[in-house]
């Protein structure tokens, strides 16, 4: 008898009903936050990595992410999520406007780094190396490669001292070089 009682109580026991109720509230809040987000500048973030706690994520930002982009990340604003939602601690690249944030759910210690899904643009201070320009000209004019392929190639050869270029920079380089060629042709 007591066995059946315990089993029946354990059936009734789950507090899931309550938890589900809370979940729906959270969903509503998320929707509100999302619609606000899309109204502003549409910055796209992609998941970079998840960490078991906040200090590990901080360490990754100060260590590996600094090295990858040869920059430092300055702590910016903290966006506090409503209710049981997560907080977002923003950081900005010190050499350009790329942002990242650490998403910090209030209910668990696991955190995720999200980073803006765009190449860094640091050339205003460094300039595009001549050898990168040369490769761009060769790939575009001689090998007739698509700009996207050239950008991908550069991204894969950062270790060789090449830099990433965005579409605007690439287009400017190619247009300038075309003008130069025209001048040469006119001269001949
Ligand atoms: Zn940057």
TrEMBL record:
Residues 73-125 form the WRKY domain. The lineage of its organism: Eukaryota, Metazoa, Spiralia, Gnathifera, Rotifera. It comes from the Eukaryota. This is WRKY domain-containing protein. PROSITE patterns: WRKY (PS50811). Residues 1-13 have a biased composition (Low complexity). Residues 1-27 are annotated as: Disordered. InterPro entries: WRKY_dom. It comes from Brachionus calyciflorus. GO terms for molecular function: DNA-binding transcription factor activity; sequence-specific DNA binding.
